[in-house]
Amino acid sequence: MCNTACTHCERTVGPTISLVLLAERLVGEARTRRARGLVPREKRVLGASAVLFVIAAAAIAVSLPNERDTDVLVVAGLIGGYALIERVRFEFGGYYGTAEQLVLVPIMLLAPLPAVPALIGAANLLAILPDILEGRWHRERVTGKLADCWYCVPPVLVLAALAPGQPGFDDSAVYLLAFAAQLIGDLGWSVIRAWLLDEMPLRELAASWLGSARVDATFSPVALMIAVPATDYPLVLLVIAPLTWLLRTFAKDREERYAKTLELHRAYRGTVMLLSDVIEFEDDYTAQHSRLVVELVNAVADELHIDPNSRQELEFAAMLHDVGKITIPKEILNKPTGLTAKEYEVMKTHTIEGQFMLDRVGGLLGRVGEIVRSCHERWDGSGYPDGLKGEEIPLASRIVFACDAYHAMTSDRAYRRALSREQALEELAANAGTQFDPRVAVALTAVVSERELLDEPAVDEVRAILAGQQTRRGVAARAPS
Fold it and tell me: Is 187:209 a contact under the CB 8 Å cutoff?
């Protein structure tokens, strides 16, 4: 079963390198969120859900008769097993998956049916207790774990109506119906949660739910084959132990690989911030300009609904698009009059120098270097250094180029006065289709016209963007409960 912060799904990622990078960042963000308390809105929504679940569990415990012969030791073992297997988590970006269905099915079939919801709730709380004690999860996340237990109520009601007694393979059709009820209950709460808290697009929610359903569908038949014989031979349940150990081995290996990759990713971000400090030391205007371009680029990316998988490369490129200027002689860089043709040729080398610097770092920043190289290419092919045109220019480079030009036009320089916002927008419109990608120009115009962007963003705010501490626009942030 997959678990969102507290539901069962957050997000899926694919195999491309950009998706892998997104997954790494989401893992880090999810771990950070779990260690924080709930925001007020989460407290209200998840608190209400948790209270309603407790009431429902109590009502079922009181109203349903128990028609099974149960062994207290077996039930206790199953609850402990459920808590243990729920801690074997496979992290996939912002969510994690577990194989708890291996124990959920035996609990459904072997425990006193009226007590199943209460037992599942207790097992979920037991599962996160070590995380709370070790500080990896905030104690308020207890509320979210209870709030997410609704998936166990519908199958209990199906079993109570159609197969309340001792389990047997003759009732396989009923068990299939109960499994379907579990999936529907899980989907119902996921939709409610997404609507009230997460604002997750329906398509993304459906993909997450289907991923969860596939995991549950894989383990349910195995669990059924173990649970039915366990009625007469309880020791059969011990088969779950080696399966859990095997899964834990895989999960631990995955966790360690993520930890190493996250450390490498932090090194990338540190390199970006170090380079931004170097730019600031060399030329205060270039540094301040780069920060404002980051703000504009993020807003335009929102307007264009840029794929979240590409956002970090775009943000880094916006901050470092002028990094190559530290190689340009200061007498050219800070010249108070227009550049000569020869000086302009020297200035144009800054994009190539910027790519060279970032290529030496490699990895993610090597890809950012490719974007930086093309940040002065023009839509009609008259830009530099490669004379790319139209769609040949990376979209990220087109966005940075337009935002860079807009901010340069609206900034005072030693050799000219800044244009007004209206004049700069007129220039932007006049050069759409020649200098600028028309679609990017329209988006930038909308951003400038409709949003009040900061004139001088604080360094710490830009660093927050670079360090991944601020919620990424375009990525639905899901706070684990």
Answer: yes
Q: What is d(CA 170, CA 235) in angstroms, rounded to the nearest whole number?
A: 22
Sign (positive or negative) of CA dihedral 123, 128, 130, 133: negative
pLDDT at 294: 81
**What does each C-alpha distance from 429 to 67, 239, 278, 302 come to in angstroms?**
76, 69, 34, 20
Q: Coil, strand, or helix at residue 105?
A: helix
pLDDT in tens, 275-317: 655 655 555 454 465 667 888 888 899 899 887 667 778 888 8
Cβ–Cβ < 8 Å for 149, 170: no
| Residues of the chain where predicted confidence (pLDDT) is lower than 70 | 1-31, 91-96, 198-200, 254-291, 308-309, 413-416, 451-481
Domains of the chain in start order, with CATH, are 2-260 (1.10.1760.20), 283-467 (1.10.3210.10)
Pairing of strands 95-97, 2-3: antiparallel
Which tokens sit at 401?
A: 């180029």
pLDDT tens by residue, 373-421: 999 999 999 999 999 999 999 999 999 999 988 988 887 765 567 888 8
Distance CA 424, CA 414 (A): 18
For residue 464, what is the enclosing H or E element?
helix 459-467
DSSP helix/strand/coil, 276: helix
Cβ atoms of residues 175 and 224 within 8 Å: yes
Question: What is residue 460's predicted lDDT score, i.e. its pLDDT?
Answer: 41
Per-residue confidence (pLDDT) for residue 82, from 0 to 100? 93
Sheet holding 2-3, edge to edge: 2-3, 95-97, 90-92
Q: List the beta bridge partners of residue 3.
A: 96
Q: How many CB atoms lie within 10 A of CB 40?
A: 7
Whole-number Å distance between alpha carbons of 375 and 91: 36
Helix, strand, coil % in the chain, rounded to nearest 5:
70, 0, 25
